[in-house]
Amino acid sequence: MLTDPTFMLSMTQSYNHYHIALYVFLGIGILITLGAFFGCWGVCRESQCLLVSFFCVILIVMVAQIAAGAWAFHNKDKLDDIVRAAVKSSVQEEYGQSTMSSRTVTFDTLQKNLKCCGADGPGDWATSRFNNVDRTNIVEIAVSSMNVFYNIPESCCKEDLKDNECELSRRLKFGGPLNTAIYQQGCVDKMIEIIYENWVSIFAITIAVILLELLSLTFALSLCCAVRNQHYKD
């Protein structure tokens, strides 16, 4: 997984693969919870076995975090394409579909909070299923999209618009000028911009978490040694 640059791309190419990511995060959460239980119960019981288990769990989590960071740094040039492909797939294939209502709500929230529209911009909606476009034939899409109007979601409208101003602004002409009442920037560029603007905070939080984990490992090892010495004295 860490050496194959196409692994994460393949993870985003199918709706079912999103469940894999959810299960991975769920597994990590269970592992951390289990480690916390081992640590607390090990301290209360002064159990070497539980303290060693806590040490191992935290060590595994920390190594996984470092490995994930190393993979992201090694493939940072490809991450932009991976994220862009995933977001564009949500816009053109999934948004507005009755079987993916949760994805629609999520993307609406993303556009409203980030003040963005589409993956690369509002033009992405011209060839999306949201406008009842059949995406099985890309050539027909390109031809049929010329000189026609298309709609964009309400979440692309800027805040505090007058009555019906959003409704009128949501209908755009393919290749025509964009209405100033809607967000012009794509969500992928907006997300990358936010990451770059806050990279110092993200880096500081990451370092703080790793230091906290190192501190936990040190305390667990020290307490384990103290318990062993106490048993020897007894």
Automatic annotation (TrEMBL):
<dbReference type="InterPro" id="IPR008952">
    <property type="entry name" value="Tetraspanin_EC2_sf"/>
</dbReference>
<dbReference type="InterPro" id="IPR018499">
    <property type="entry name" value="Tetraspanin/Peripherin"/>
</dbReference>
<comment type="similarity">
    <text>Belongs to the tetraspanin (TM4SF) family.</text>
</comment>
<dbReference type="Pfam" id="PF00335">
    <property type="entry name" value="Tetraspanin"/>
</dbReference>
<keyword id="KW-0472">Membrane</keyword>
<dbReference type="InterPro" id="IPR000301">
    <property type="entry name" value="Tetraspanin_animals"/>
</dbReference>
<feature type="transmembrane region" description="Helical">
    <location>
        <begin position="199"/>
        <end position="227"/>
    </location>
</feature>
<keyword id="KW-0812">Transmembrane</keyword>
<protein>
    <recommendedName>
        <fullName>Tetraspanin</fullName>
    </recommendedName>
</protein>
<feature type="transmembrane region" description="Helical">
    <location>
        <begin position="50"/>
        <end position="73"/>
    </location>
</feature>
<keyword id="KW-1133">Transmembrane helix</keyword>
<dbReference type="GO" id="GO:0005886">
    <property type="term" value="C:plasma membrane"/>
</dbReference>
<feature type="transmembrane region" description="Helical">
    <location>
        <begin position="20"/>
        <end position="43"/>
    </location>
</feature>
